[in-house]
Amino acid sequence: MPRLQFTPWKEPAELLSVRSQFYPSTAATGEPADMRAKACSLVWVWKLRGNLPHTVEATALLTDAILHDDATKNSIFSIRATYSAAFCRFVTGLVDSKLYGKKQTMFQKAMELGLPASFVELRHEATHRELPSLIVLRNAAHQSLGWLWEFYWAGLDDAGIMDAGNDVPNESNGGLEFTKDAIRQTLKTLMSGENGLSESSGKRRSLRKVESSPELESIALVCSQQQEGAQAVAQVLLEQGFMILASRTIRSSIEPTFSTWDGVLKELCRHHTTFLTTLSGELARVLGDGDSPSLGDDPYKEAIYLWFDHILNSDTWSATRRLYFSTCYVDAVCHNETGYWTSRLRSLLDQYSSDLDTDVPMGTSRYGVSETRPNNDVFAGRKDGSPADMDTDSNLLRSYGWEVNGGWKYKPIGAV
C-alpha cells in the first residue's frame, strides 16, 4: 500500500519554483528580479498549513534576516538579533535530540548530519553569551544557506520531489551502502596499477598526479554533493585495506601508510572544508566502539590512535590542522568514555589543547596583542614611565593590521 505524505505545497513544481527564488541560477541572462521576499512570504503560508520541513523554514528565516540587513532602516542591534534568532533556530531544529530521534549531544547529532562544529559553537555563543558580531553572523548565514543547498535543495528533482518532506536522509533503500560501494571501487582504482597509490607498488604515482586524478575528484564530489557523503567516505577509508593495512600487527610502524594517504586526505580537506572534522569524528567513534581497559593489544585500534597522533602532532598536517580541525566532535565522542583507547585519546587531546595555549611568542597573547609583563619594573626604562619595549609593541600591533595613532600614555592599573 503506498505511503501517503502530506505536504504544504500543492504540487512539486511549486517547491522547485521556491527553490529557484531562494537560489537564483547564475546561468540566467540579464539581471534576474529578486524574488526572495516573495519566496519567504509563501513559506509563511506553508507554515500555517503544517508539515513544513525544517530545512525549508530555516532557509526562509535566514534569507529574511539577510533581506533585513539594512542599517538605514534598522539598528545594528536589531539586525544582529534577527540574524542570531534565524541562525539559532536553524541549528537547534537540526541537532536538538529532544525534538526527535535518539538522545545525543548536539555535537554528536551534528556529526551525523555533517553539520560543521562551528555552527553548534556559534549557536551556543548567540544563545548564552553576547550576540556575535555582525560580520560573523553574516558569514554564518551565507554558509548556512550553502549547507542547506547541499543538504536539501540540491537533491530535489522532478522524480524524487515526493521525498522532500523528510529532513533526515532516507537510507531504507540502501542508498548509503550503494554510495559506499562506489567509493570503495573508486579508491581501489586510485590504488591499483603500477603507478597506483598502493604502498606495495614498486613505482607510486607522484603526489601531484594523485591530487589531480579523476578518482580523487569524484570522491571529493561525493563529499560535497551527497547527504552524509563525507561521513561515508571517512567510514570507507577506515576499513581495513585502505588507511589501515589488513595485515598489520601490534606495535608495527605505519609511517609508510602516512606518506601514502596524507596527500589524498589533505586534498579532500581542501575540497570539503569539514572533511577533517568528519574524519576525526569517525576515528574517535571507532576507538570508542566496544572499547574497554583490556583492549590495549588491538592492532586495528592502535593504528586508528596512531593516525590521530599523526594528524594532531605531525608538521605535515600543521597548515591543514590550523584551518580545518576542530576538537569539539572528538570531545563529544570521548565524553564519559573510560576505555583504554578513548582514555589515551583524551590525553592526546588535552596535550594538543595545552600546546595550543602555550604555542605563543613571549610577551604576546594568542591574538597578537601585547600582554602585561609580570615583573614589577615593567614600566621602567623611559622618563615618561612607558615600557622600554614600546616600539616593539607598536610594531607588533601594526603587523597584525592595527594602526597606532598619537602617543601612548602608560600608567599602572589604578593610577590617575
TrEMBL record:
It comes from the Eukaryota. Residues 365-387 are annotated as: Disordered. Transmembrane segments: none annotated. GO terms for cellular component: Las1 complex; preribosome, large subunit precursor. GO terms for biological process: maturation of 5.8S rRNA; maturation of LSU-rRNA. GO terms for molecular function: endonuclease activity. InterPro entries: Las1. This is Cell morphogenesis protein Las1. It comes from Helicocarpus griseus UAMH5409.
